[in-house]
Every structure is written in structure tokens, then in C-alpha cells.
Amino acid sequence: MTQVAEKEILLNGTQAVAYAAMYADVDVTAAYPIRPYTEVMDTISKLIADGQLDAEFIIAEGEHGQFEIVKHASLVGARTLVGTSGVGWLYAMEAIVVTATDRAPVVAVIGNRALDDPGAYGVEHNDALMVRDVGWLLVWVDTAQEAFDTALLAYRIGEDPRVLIPVGVSMDGGFLTHSEQIVRLPDRELVKSFLPPYDRGKLRVHPDNPISVAPQVNEDWVTEIRRQHDEGMERAREVIKEAYESFKKTFGRYPGTTRDITMPENPFVEPYMVEDADVILVGMGTVSKPMKVAIKNMREKGVKAGMLRIRWFRPFPAEDVMKYLANAKVVCVVDRDYSLGSPFRGGVVYHEVRSSLYDLDERPKVLSFIGGLGGREITIQDVEKIIKIGVEQRDTPLTRHTYWVNVRGDPW
Amino acid sequence: MGEEDVKYVEITYRGIFQKRLAKYVAEGLVYMARDMGKSAVSFGRYGDSPERNGVPAKYYVAVGNVSEEDLIGYSTRVEPEYVDVIAVLDDTLLKGVESWAWQGVQPINLKLRKDGAMIVTSRKPMEEMVKLTPSKDFQWTLGKLNWDRSFSGLWAFNDDTTMERVWGAIAKVRPDIVDIQHVVSYVKSHKKDKLNERLKAVEEAYEGLVIKTMNPGEGVEFKYAPPRLLTWQEMMEGTAIPAVPRGGRNEQFKRGTTKTERPTVDFDACIKCDLCWVYCPDECFDKTPDGYYDIAYDYCVGCGICAEVCPVKNCIVMVDEKRLPDYTRPYGMWKANKVEYKKWLQNARAEVRERPIVPGLGR
Ligand code: SF4
Ligand code: SF4
Questions:
Q1: Does one domain contain both B154 and B50?
Q2: Any CB–CB contact under 8 A between A286 and chain B?
Q3: Phi, psi torsion values for A209, nearest 5 degrees
């Protein structure tokens, strides 16, 4: 393990990703403003203006065009950065889906934002989750450091010839996009050794390599193309593991860690005090930080609580979920999203977790907590309440699957 | 050391015009606190829409002798429960802060906790400032940073030493958060140009800060009750809200604290053409029985459209908001005493910024 002096700089989540794109030496970025993504394009444009990054900066006429631009650039061999939020992501949906099916490994930042209506800026994960079924790699980060590190990793993973799949790096609007923390920036030379140049090989659209992408076909093609994509998604698991290991070897620290923030070395999930826990919280994004404080508080009162933060949502870490949750009595999945009309009215992550646990001989109870929508905070006190409900449900037959956190009009 | 030991600095600023300034003030404080061996993070109050001209907005710095991860855990909030220092970057914000839809107008020092301090960038004498400052029921410190408010564009930063002065002022009132030595060493290590000017500004603010101890109840009474928000059962379905009754206005969403300029009306010149009434995007004008148009200043955002469309020269003139202490409506004043009103008008219009005239509109 090499130890190198890293530069410490104060950045918020969006700035951290823009800096990562600079370190990754992106060739093309397409931009269209929408909060909270906007500061990504602001920062990138400043880095270009200051001469720190040499890249094409293209202002699109809307998000659909924005994503088409980077898809095409990626297919001709350019490393790209793109991003958006909320309804911007949905407006680009047609382009977003074909980016995956054409296997263009663009990296997209999604500053998670509630979908309209009502008009709100705050975080909700339903925007990014709209692509959960169509072959994007999806990852959620919870600090500015993890945003930086994960964006670098995203290029390495997505561009790997075994994968060639776009990566969506999600971060909570406000709580991470607009919150500054100290980020360690690595030595730029080391980044070069960590991140090889993007090479599509025979899949590069170029006069020297005459190929055509995205033909019109009959029913006799589509299934195989989806199956192939499925295989690429599955291969990504191994590539993700390799990339995290290589990151640690190159930079001397595990992705996401800082002087103050340590965690077990697992790329897919962050387990916290799970070993002896009766009640384990599951969540994605910045909710992890109040969760950790609440767990410490509850443990002082003798409640054995723990947390499993899902980092990579696609591919979904079913094995890790089984491994870390198998011995819990109750699992409380906190969803910053909703899936109206779904089984037991639960959230999206709840269903993934519940399904992952199905083949265990002894399964914990799984409860769904929907909260923090539209930017509402999930406070330490809210989490303590969730843990208490988990404790109450431990020894009684399951009577209720889903709770809305702190909603006005229901008892809480 | 736990959550209760965390100190919060609140920087209250005008959206767009002071966004960079607020962010850079916060950034410096984080670095300084870290140099003092503490953990520190900063965050914008995200719901504020600071990308809109003049909207009162807030930036926060959290400082504590706790691990950075715990600090992030405590401060992953929309806004903190309490603040220890408030830095107000424009004294017209003392009239109230309404940054969120449906929250109502809040007093500037709503979250200040006992023994806290509020520093206001202002040219007003301290006695005048006290008359504009909401009271608290405990003792606290009011500081005046004798300096002009600094405005610029959204991505521009007016590097005019306001930032350095705010740091110096905070070090004066709360050295436990950042002390003067660390302000100075931060400026020396991070700023290469105009170093002497910057250090002089820090010192001027530190030495020259006008400080007053505010006793319980001192200042103006500014009652704020958070609105009762509806339950999901009570709300109309389909994201619908009821219309405000004709002739009424929305009590929970006024927007008047956004303005940095306001229209003044010379009723003696008014020809009752009603164009101001027609064009005001915020429907601030009320027709009076005698056909004039009164202005609901607490709803006026200061966009200047009425002044542009008014066909009579010098009938509606935009003036700097800092020249007026409150939102008293003009028509009643004029009716009550025309001579006094003339004086009020002259005083308000004593310094008028040149406004570009939009061709095709009025005048
Ligand atoms: S400046 Fe004039 S037009 Fe604009 S909101 Fe105020 S009253 Fe209305
Ligand atoms: S636009 Fe001017 S002249 Fe016309 S009614 Fe309004 S104040 Fe009077």
C-alpha cells in the first residue's frame, strides 16, 4: 500500500464529482441546468475556464439532447460527464435508456430531487430509480469524499471492456449536493495509473472501424440483446470489486474513507455495528449519518441496533444483504422513495431487500419505512423512533409492513 | 462532547447578490475551525431558492469537537435547531426573513440561542439598528460591522474585503468558534494578492466592531408562529390549493422581504391610469375609493415593473430599500398628511440608482 500526501480541499457533493471528472480528464461534457445538479456544470465550466481541464463543454437545448450528446460522444470513444436531477432525468429518459442499450459508459451525476408536482427541490430517490430495470449501474454516495472517489471508480468500472455500461452516481439533493466537507484529492499521476484510457476497441464508431449502432430489428433480435446486457451487468460485480481493491492499492485508502470516516472494506454495502444487532436499518444516501448517531445513542440505552447502507443498487448486492442481515431479528428499510401500489405498499429498496432474503431458512422480519421525501430531513430522533418500532415488532407477530415516517395525519 | 457542544454560524444573505460571498465566508470559517483542531462542515439552506434575486437565504457552518462523521450526522438537517452566531450581510434583512413558501415571515434572529451574537453589516447608528432588531427573552450580543453591504451577480464575487471583515467580526464576538490568530493565519496562507488590504480589513472589523449587549425584551417585538401545515387527509387531492379569496392576500407566502429596492409613489402626480395595477406581477396594488393605487409593500418584491410602466415622470420611483424602516403602506400616509408625505418621499428618494429605461415601456 502506497502512502501519498493528498491535498485537502472543501467541496460539496456536486463540486466533488466535477473535480473527479477533471482528474479523470473527461473529453466531453454536456450540460443543462436544473437544481441541484447545476453546480456540477458550474464547477466544470470554471475548471475549463481556469485552464485546469481541457474538455468540450456543450450546452444542450434540454436534457434529452444533453444525454444524446454524451451517448454519441461516448460511442466514438470520448470520456464523458453528464448529469441532471428530478424531472430533468425523466425528460431525458428515452436517451438515457438507449445510452445503456448501446453500451455507452457515460458517467451521470444525479442530484436526487423530488419529481413534480408539487414543485420542490429536495431529495427523493424516485428520479434515479426510474432506470433501475433498464441496465444502468446505479450507486448512491453519502459524503463528498465518497462522491469524488466513486465518480473516479465509475469511469474505471463502466469503461471496463467486460462491462461497458453507463453509471449513475446518485447523491441526495441539498444534504450532499449543497453541503461542503473536506475532500482528499489524490496525486494526478496516480489517477493516471488507476484509470486507463477509455478504449472501446472494436465497438468504437470510427471511419477506421466501420460499424453501425442501434439498427431497427425484428422480434428475433431483442431478447438476445437484453440477455447480453444482463451478462454485462453481472460481470460488473467482479469489476467493481477489482476496482475498489485497485483504488486502495493505488491511493492508499479505501474509497469513501477519510481521517474521520472509516468503514469495512466492501464496495457494495457499508455495514455498521451489524454483528450482534437485533434491529438493522437499511438505507441509501445521506440518511446513513443520522442513522449512525442514532445507533450509537440507542446502544448506550442497551438496544442492539445496526445499519447496512446500500451503496451499489445495480447490480444489487443480494449476497451481502443476506450475509449481513441473516442474523437480525428485524430489518427496518428506510426508503427515500415510494412505490405506490406495490406489495404491502412498501418502498423500492424494501422490496429488493425482502426479495433477497427470501431463500434464507430463517428470515428476519422486514419493515418498510417511507420518509424524507421532497427534502424533508430524517433526523436522529426519527431514526431512534424507527429503531424503537423495530424493537416493538421483534417479538410479536407481524401486524404491519409499512410506516410513513413523520407524516402529518398518521400516528407517529 | 456531543451534539449539544456543536456550534452553528448562520450567514443570512440576499440570494444571487451575495451567494458567493456567503459561501466563501462559510468556506473560510470551515478551514479556520479545522486549523484550530475542530471538525467543521458547511451547508446552504437548500430550500431557499438562493438563485433568485434578493431572496433572503442562509448558509451554515457547523463546528465541534466531535468526529467529522458525527458532525455530518448532526448537521444533515434543513437547518439547525439553534445558532450561536448570525452574520447578516445586508441590514434590510432585519425587517424579516421569508425564504420558504408557506412559512411566513420570520424574525432575523429566530434561531439565536442564549448568549449568542448577531453581527449586522450596516451603516446605521447602533440606536437605529436596535429599533429594527427583534427582541429575545434572554441576553445576547448585537454587533455592528460598519461597512457597506456588498452585492454582485450570481457567479461573480465582489472581492471587496467584506468577507475578511465578517471573519474579523465573528472572531471578536465568538473566539471559541474562530479566533483572530486563525483568521489572520488563514488569510495569510490562502490569499496571495492584496494581502495587506485583507489583513487590514480583518483588523478593522475586529477592532472596530460596535458591540451592544441586548437585554431580555430589548428591541422590537416580532412575534412569529410557525404556520399549522395540513395533514394529508386535510389537503386537497391532486396538489391543489384553494385560491385566496378575492381582495385578500396569502398570509403564509408574502415575498416582500425579497426586495432590495421598492417603488415610491407621488400621488400628487398620479393620473390614475391603472397601468401599475395591471402590470404588477405580484398584484401589489390596491385601488383606493378615490381611484389611486396603494401598494402592499409586504408583498412587493421590488421588481421595478410598475416604475417602468408608469407614464408620468417621477410618479413611481424605485428607491433603495435601506432608506425605509418598515412596510407601512404609502396611501394612508399621504391621506393623513400630504406635507409630511412629501418629506417622506423626498427623503426616500434622496439617493436613486440610475435605472436603465426599457424602450417601449412608459416614459
Ligand atoms: S416593484 Fe412594483 S411591479 Fe414590482 S412587485 Fe413591487 S409593486 Fe409590483
Ligand atoms: S401607473 Fe403611475 S400614473 Fe398610472 S395609476 Fe399607477 S401610479 Fe398612477
A1: yes
A2: yes
A3: -135, 75
